[in-house]
Design goal:
mainly alpha
Length: 84
């Protein structure tokens, strides 16, 4: 059962990737203002860039915290326990 936490980590990674692809392609890219409003296009472009960066940041934070937790649990299991 040592591989089960690693499988869970990979499953969470894939779920995050699939969720972010859905959010990016179906929520961020679908919203478009009228083509003649240049100010709205600029604001929307900046909003899309910010939302994409936020999604990347969420992915990075979740994956780094999960990998840190996985590494700590493996190190905790391998450290010798003092015998009394």
């Amino acid at each position: 059962m040592r591989i089960l936490p690693l499988v869970g980590l990979m499953a969470v990674a894939w779920l995050l990737i699939i969720g972010e692809v859905y959010v990016f392609f179906y929520l961020i890219l679908e919203y478009a203002p009228p083509i003649h409003e240049v100010g709205a296009l600029t604001a929307l472009a900046l909003l899309k860039v910010a939302a994409t960066l936020a999604l990347g940041g969420v992915w990075f934070v979740v994956m780094s915290s999960l990998s840190k937790a996985y590494t700590n649990s493996k190190l905790r299991n391998r450290t010798p326990k003092p015998s009394s």
